[in-house]
Design brief:
- The chain is an alpha/beta fold.
- Helix content is 42%, strand content 13%.
- The protein is built from ten helices and eight strands.
- This is Pyrophosphatase PpaX.
- InterPro entries: HAD-like_hydrolase_sf (IPR050155), HAD-like_sf (IPR036412), HAD-SF_hydro_IA (IPR006439), HAD_2 (IPR041492), HAD_sf (IPR023214), PGP-like_dom2 (IPR023198).
């Protein structure tokens, strides 16, 4: 394992914030009447990490899905505080990394408003040096643009940067941008899928990130 990392880029949903049930319930409620009766979480999980537009288009076959995105965000906002939690050890690890001088970025396919709301709600906002949301890019993940933008904002060296994520799009975006892809074992999609899409490491616990920065756990 490399131990000279200076910059850590994090995906948001499913990586540092446990939004899995929030996302699934938001989709299920906003898709009522538009998908077969047997449509369930097993159909939603594989595409988590893509933009809302891409996911709704995949689920419904519709091109114009603006009304579904609006419905999703209404449900998501209503359930947000009830269902949102950071994953174990996230707060202490990000705090320690920040205090040690590790640059921290968040690279997400969420809009900026909900990104900032979630990070503030979980007490993580102040540890982040750069945010790249879907509002900031032309080409969201799996395109490398979001990761490249974060590198530029932080003046970071790809060789000493890792991208931590829970989905294939995170690994692909990281790999294409020249940074080290790191998957999380708590991904609903499974560690093997992340390895297949370029993950060089899979962590089982957020505290394993200390070793990448040459810090004691």
């Amino acid at each position: 394992m490399t131990s000279n990392i200076k910059t850590m880029l994090f995906d948001l949903d499913g990586t540092i914030m446990d939004t899995n049930e929030l996302i699934i319930r938001s989709f299920m409620e906003s898709l009522k009447g538009l998908v077969p009766e047997d449509f369930g979480r097993e159909h939603i999980i594989p595409s988590m990490g893509l933009t809302l537009e891409a996911q709704f288009q995949n689920f419904t076959g519709l091109t114009d899905v603006g009304h579904l995105i609006k419905a999703y965000r209404t449900v998501n906002t209503k359930l947000h505080d009830e269902l949102l939690r950071p994953f174990p050890y996230t707060n202490e690890v990000m705090k320690d990394l920040h205090e040690q001088g590790i640059q921290i970025g968040v690279v997400t396919t969420k809009i900026r408003m909900s990104t900032e709301r979630g990070m503030k709600f979980c007490g993580l906002y102040d540890y982040v040096d750069a945010f790249v949301t879907v509002d900031d890019v032309v080409n969201p993940k799996p395109h490398p643009e979001p990761v490249l933008m974060a590198l530029e904002m932080l003046n970071a060296d790809p060789a000493t940067t890792i991208m931590i994520g829970d989905s294939a799009v995170d690994m692909i975006s990281a790999k294409e941008a020249g940074v080290i892809p790191v998957g999380v074992a708590w991904s609903l999609k499974g560690g093997e899928l992340l390895k297949e899409n370029g993950a060089q490491y899979i962590i089982d616990d957020m505290r394993e990130l200390y070793a990448f920065a040459g810090m004691e756990r």
